[in-house]
Amino acid sequence: xxxxxxxxxxxxxxxxxxxxxxxxxxxxxxxxxxxxxxxxxxxxxxxxxxxxxxxxxxxxxxxxxxxxxxxxxxxxxxxxxxxxxxxxxxxxxxxxxxxxxxxxxxxxxxxxxxxxxxxxxxxxxxxxxxxxxxxxxxxxxxxxxxxxxxxxxxxxxxxxxxxxxxxxxxxxxxxxxxxxxxxxxxxxxxxxxxxxxxxxxxxxxxxxxxxxxxxxxxxxxxxxxxxxxxxxxxxxxxxxxxxxxxxxxxxxxxxxxxxxxxxxxxxxxxxxxxxxxxxxxxxxxxxxxxxxxxxxxxxxxxxxxxxxxxxxxxxxxxxxxxxxxxxxxxxxxxxxxxxxxxxxxxxxxxxxxxxxxxxxxxxxxxxxxxxxxxxxxxxxxxxxxxxxxxxxxxxx
Length: 396
What we know:
Rossmann fold; 3 domains; globular; methyltransferase; Thump-like; PG_1098_Fer; methyltransferase activity; transferase
């Protein structure tokens, strides 16, 4: 960590130039004594990245940004705040502290927070930023989180762990046993030291596999931002029976927070009614789809499904729904003669349970992307290929 970066003159330069072309900075002669072009480029990149992902850091003077990989791997503010909202008690340990975004939000909810980060430079950066952010209830440890846990006498209300998802060759991994630390191996230790354990994993991890491997799973949170699943959060409690796992699917949009909760065992025995497309079409958000709430959502929202495997829903009355809502204008059979009428149109194209990909359909019918019309290519309850033309319902 080069503390010269924190000097007023350089901080002013970063504040006024974070939108500049970083490549030109890297290729030019150093602008400041004792600071390399690479170090300056790192700070400019960090400041720009924080503008949307970490607005609190972006607005705070005297922030020192880590390298690109460490910054990209950190939680966003919106997901960190969601994690903090689930915590309770007096003591929480963040065993994989990283850039400290989760730790910061934990510190706003819990009286005493323990931060562990084995990388000494990153640890120093986060300590510096804690001062800039006004954090004074965090105990910092430059240590491996699991080793710290083995040696501490403290018992925590919550332990949070975000295992590294890169192997020794820096390649991305997502299976639990391939991540570091291996939470399967250390599960008993974690549950001995805390009343509850929260583990963050890749969105690619299969829910059934995770439940089977982690054993004492009480809850799973599928967290999406702008309809892109960002992380899975696994809540472990000692002696939790897996068959009663509660799943929460949450999608943060610019205007709202869409939440759908259900019990996994009830999804397995739930049933759906099927219907031809009615007045409104509903497409669940990505968090609901990843959570696998395909039948529970029918009962909860009184909608009918188009086909067992299509995961599109319909109703005559407009309802509030965790996903996109469309008003149906026309339903066409999928054949060349009928579809000549859409050739060359400017439309948004989606497929659900359909044998052709969006790119192939666009090419086949020379469709341009955009506009206010939407075409859903799917299969109905009678296993017929259909195209649903609709517009997005803004009143929903």
